[in-house]
Design goal:
With 133 residues, this protein is of the alpha+beta class. The chain has three helices and four strands, in the order αββαββα.
């Protein structure tokens, strides 16, 4: 994994951006203020274009494409929530939105189990014995 990500990491650093590398994902991010939005988004856009070129030149598949940000034609508005690695962060960092979404998802799956419970046979498994050395 390090052989694959080292050139990509160097490319992102050359644009003076921060990033996180995961097993199957790379996140590039930038912190910006309203005063330097256009410059920062141009910097991010240039980096994403170079990453796309690097992937193509090195014959790596790009499974998720990104949308180029047109700073002159698009207004960017702050979001109250952001999802990252399955966790929903809200602007107050109180996790209310994350908990709400988690509960909603749990109830959805529990209702699904209720619908099929008559079709499921319960099998009592024998106890598991562990051998300690």
């Amino acid at each position: 994994m390090t052989l694959y990500t080292t050139p990509l990491s160097s490319l992102i650093h050359s644009h003076k951006l921060d990033h996180h590398l995961y097993a199957d994902d790379t996140q590039v991010y930038i912190s910006l203020s309203t005063a330097d939005t256009d410059i920062s988004l141009k910097q991010l856009d240039d980096c994403l274009r170079d990453i796309s070129g690097w992937m193509t030149n090195n014959k790596h598949n790009i499974f998720h494409h990104y949308r180029y940000i047109q700073t002159t034609q698009q207004t960017i508005t702050p979001s109250d929530t952001v999802r990252n690695l399955g966790v929903t962060f809200d602007s107050d960092f109180n996790f209310r939105k994350h908990l709400s979404l988690s509960c909603r998802s749990s109830f959805y799956h529990i209702r699904g189990l209720r619908r099929i419970r008559r079709c499921i046979s319960f099998i009592r498994q024998s106890p598991c014995y562990c051998i300690h050395y």
